[in-house]
Amino acid sequence: MFKTVLFPIDRSRESQQAAETVAGVVKIHNSRLILLSVVEPPAEDGTTDAMSSPEAIAELLTTAKNLFAQQGIEADAIEREGKPAFTICDVADEVSADLIVMGCRGLGLTDEGVSDSVTNRVINLSPCPVLIVP
Fold this sequence. Notes:
With 134 residues, the protein is α/β, with parallel strands linked by helices.
């Protein structure tokens, strides 16, 4: 049913918690797993965060690949630069993902956070079903 599963990751606790769900889905459906990390371009004022360095992203993806490898799951890794929600949906389309699995920080559960929520934007723009792990 889910031949290709896309798992966007970052260093958040929610992303780490979603990894268990991803492993279960991939094992049950014998899916191809694609890990995605999105680097946001520097802000207009030139500031960057820790996840903007190529080294930090490479380390994150390697750690995630090793975590899944320990469970007998081979994963491909993709690193992209851009706005997270749009990039996630673009990559899902490019790899013909059948499912996107993401953690949720809960920021989109309030009126103030709904417009800024990456999760909400992915749900609305995705070319495939999205599984949100709370």
